[in-house]
Structure formats: structure tokens, C-alpha cells
Amino acid sequence: MGTNAVVGSGPVGLERLSRRTLLASAAATVTAPAVAQERYPDRPIRLLVPWTAGSSSDVQMRSLAEVAQQSLGQPVVIENRPGASGTLHAQALAAARPDGYTLGQMHLSVVRRPFLVRQPLWNTVTDYTHILRLCGWMYGVAVKADSPHRDWRDFIARARASPGRLTFATSGIATTNHLAMEELAEREGAQLTHVPYRGSSEGMTAVLSGQVDCIADSSVWVPQVEAGQMRALCVWTADRVPRLPSVPTLKELGHDMVITSPYGLSGPKGMDPAVVRVLHDAFKAALFSPANAAVRGQFDMPEQYLDTEQYTDFIAKRAEHERTMVQRLGIKLD
């Protein structure tokens, strides 16, 4: 009987053990993401900003990082990587581990660049995890206060009279502001000479020192206008800017153009959706915080939030738009 009991109980014991093991294994599988989620982040997060320190975008991203790190519980460390028209960071971001500890600013120059070169180093649609869209820039054209160009019409008249003589600074070749200025000149029947810099602040300094005639860039130059050191010729927003009530929009100047170049936050492809949600929620809260709203107001940067799904869709559609635009203008970097 004892032998029979041992033999007979063996399969039953194994069956019970097997069921317990399976249940334990299933429970571990179900709870693993939650456990991983609770641990993220457990060290500082690196945020790549492709502009010089002190530029409008840099100040905005630093503000977001400062607010977001309070809820994340870990520092968000800004790493400036200016150059290549704001795309110097893109390859490093695409190649980083998709663990949520390397993020980067995603903007339209990164979307556009693959269509400007013969051998693209990344595909903006497939090589990144797009987390959320944040806001845009207030662009415009400004000259030094003592410039002979009193307004936009005067500037264009002089440009038509001396093709290629007048110069404009931007934050880089094939940036949104560069292409928009080229299109504006084409519409106006004028020829301008582009002088690219590594960031908006450098372009503004070049205007103030008399190296170039004007800057066509984001609103880093607005404080200089308010201080009387520069004069704005036009803004590229849908409506006039409250801080510059006398400055006309492109629409008022006869051009059906509104240029804000919205940007967002992305990481490498293949990020855990649970980690993406943590980052989305933290940076969305930071975007709508009073502290960040004050910074956006300082630079007249319109809030243009999109969630993860919406932003991913926007990038796919915008990539097709950029490809078409680059082909139409015939611009190539190599």
C-alpha cells in the first residue's frame, strides 16, 4: 500500500507543482511591467538639445526638464549638441538604448534632413519613439535699430534693387526659417544671401555687430527689439504678437503663410510603452505648468500639444510634406 501510495501520489504531486509553477510564472509575467514601471526612472535622464545654451529652445527645454524631474524623481540633464542645423544629435538619439534614459528634442529639421542628403543617416518615421508634441516658435525678421531698412517693404525694395547683396542670418542651413525666408524672397521677386549660424543667439549677435543685415529666426531677438537695439520687420504667426503690436504678419503683407515649426520630445525606437507613458505624463504636466507657461510667454512660443499617438501620426504625415517641399525647392546638402 505504501508503495502504491508513493507511486500513485507522484503524478498528483507533479501536477500540483506544475500548476503552481505555471500560476507563479504567469503572475510574474503580468506583474513584471508594473515592477519595471515602479523602478523607472532610477537614474538621471539625458535630454539632448540641438541648440546653443541660452537660445529660446534651450531655455524652454530646460524649463520643461526642471519641472518634469520633480515628478520623475530623477534629474533630467540637458546636453547641448548644436550644429548641423539642429540635427547633430539625431543620429546619437536614434542609436541610443531604448531604455528611456536618452531623449531628444524632435523638430522639423530632423524630419526634413533625410530628404536633403544622398545617404540619410536616419528615418524619422521608423527610427524613433515619438513621445509628445510640445510647442512651436514665434518666427520673424528683425534688423539692427539703426538699419536703413525701416520696414519689410523697404527691405524688399532694396533687395530687388541689389540682388544678393542683402544678407540674412538663421540658425542653420535647411532649417524651417531658412526655407521660409527663401520662399518669401522668391514670392517677393528678390534675391537674398543666407548666412547660417549654429543657433539663434549667434545670429542675433551677428546682426547687432553689423555682420549681417537681418535675422530670420525665432524670437530670441524680441528682447532686443523691446530694448530699442533692434527693429522687427514682420512676424510669421497667424496673428500679431501682443509684445509687438505694431509689427505686421506675413498675411498682412500679402502672403498666405503661417510658420511656427512645432517640435516635441522623442527617444530611440522600441521604447517600452509603459516608460513612454511615464515620460509623456511628466512632460505634459511640465508643458502646462505655470513655470513653463511663463517661459513660453517670454519667447511667444505657442503651445501645440499632441499626445503620443497623435504626434506619431503627425511626424509620418509631416515627413511626406517635407519630402515634397524639398523636391520642389531643389535644395540638397551634398
Automatic annotation (TrEMBL):
User: Which InterPro entries does the protein's record reference?
Assistant: BUG, Bug_dom1
Q: Does the keyword Hydrolase apply?
A: no
Can you tell which superkingdom this protein's organism belongs to? Answer: Bacteria
Keywords associated with the record: Receptor
Q: Which CDD domains match?
A: PBP2_Bug_TTT
Q: Which Pfam families is this protein grouped with? A: TctC
Q: Which family does it belong to?
A: Belongs to the UPF0065 (bug) family.
Q: What is this protein called?
A: Tripartite-type tricarboxylate transporter, receptor component TctC
Q: Lineage of the source organism?
A: Bacteria, Pseudomonadati, Pseudomonadota, Alphaproteobacteria, Acetobacterales
